[in-house]
Amino acid sequence: KGVNFEKYDDMLVDVSGSNPPPPIMTFDEAALCESLKKNIIKTGYVKPTPVQKYGIPIISAGRDIMACAQTGSGKTAAFLLPILQQLMADGVAASSFSELQEPEAIIVAPTRELISQIYLEARKFAFGTCVRPVVVYGGVSTGHQIRDILRGCNVLCGTPGRLLDVIGRGKIGCSKLQYLVLDEADRMLDMGFEPDMRRLVASPGMQSKENRQTLMFSATYPEDIQRLAADFLKTDYLFLAVGVVG
Ligand code: ADP
Ligand code: MG
Predict the structure, then answer these.
(1) What is the ipTM of this complex?
(2) pTM of the predicted model, to two decimals?
(3) Which of 28, 76, 120, 187 to mutate to test the pocket of ligand 1 (most atoms within 8 A of CB)?
């Protein structure tokens, strides 16, 4: 496992949309805080992959993004690093023991395995900081996950159904939500999660697309993903494609 950088060196990168920021060539250029830099090194990442080089500055600039890149290209860090950097710069700290948790970021992925990987990566990058990620998914009791959320939650990672479930229980508020990430968007559609995704963005108290930053990731870019992007993203979103996208 890991990134094969050699095969990326001659990969096509396409950014479309108005005024895209220039890519970064190194993680140093991303102007990350010390703890994040330290955690990246500990994770063993030395240089950014193409989707990270182009994606990180786009997200840090506050832009919505639809990013398409093949599996294994490093999409997770492309969205986690700029989100965590912003939350650390803002000095957010999870309010523990509060009966209402208001995460700054919600990340959605279609399966327990995929969302758990994202959560573990978020934990590694947030290690030693005040930012607290939490993960929820179906197939296990909700009560335990709710208790975990109530211990403090800045980055809520979840599968679509279980996220709707915990939000519906009134323990999650969206008034502080800055980031909504829809990862593996094509797989979510294939698995029949489109109604859940639409319910999620329409859930009570959810920030409108004008008032949040929405980041969509997908390995492919068929018509139904383009339609979702048009519905969920601001009209000036940037489209980033790395490699050959079907
Ligand atoms: P994707 O979401 O595009 O399928 P992942 O984010 O899961 O890809 O990354 C694939 C693998 O590459 C993971 O094992 C991850 O830890 C590793 N990886 C990601 N970015 C880098 C990097 N900049 N340097 C080294 N390894 C990386
Ligand atoms: Mg991924």
Answers:
(1) 0.99
(2) 0.96
(3) 76
